[in-house]
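User: Before I run my own analysis I want an independent prediction to cross-check against. Here's the chain; please return only the structure tokens and, at the end, one sentence I can use as a sanity check.
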Amino acid sequence: AKWLGPFSTNTPAYLTGEFAGDYGWDTAGLSADPETFRRYRELELIHARWAMLGALGCVTPELLAKNGVKFGEAVWFKAGAQIFQEGGLNYLGNSSLIHAQSILATLACQVCTVSPVGAKLLQLCSAA
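Assistant: Structure tokens:
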């Protein structure tokens, strides 16, 4: 199947339909080089795994809150605003764990841990 059905006449020769999602449309030429295309597929898989983990992170606090676990704010799109409240943000409602009072410090910690360490860990897990 082509992206525009019978009206798709000039599809690139390198799009043969052998990969999932290949409907003959690549206006930017992102998959023209096979090695680049392989790397993009790998990156998309890593991003999909992060997205699934993020979806789990959105649902889990709400489910736990409905079953009696106390949170400051269990709804995922409101939870980040707690850092601006008086006293900051206690992760999992416990001040002995991570206690965030500065958005800049939180951002710095996330950049330092997620960027090099998280990427290397995902790379190691993907190779296994």
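Sanity check: The longest strand covers residues 89-90.
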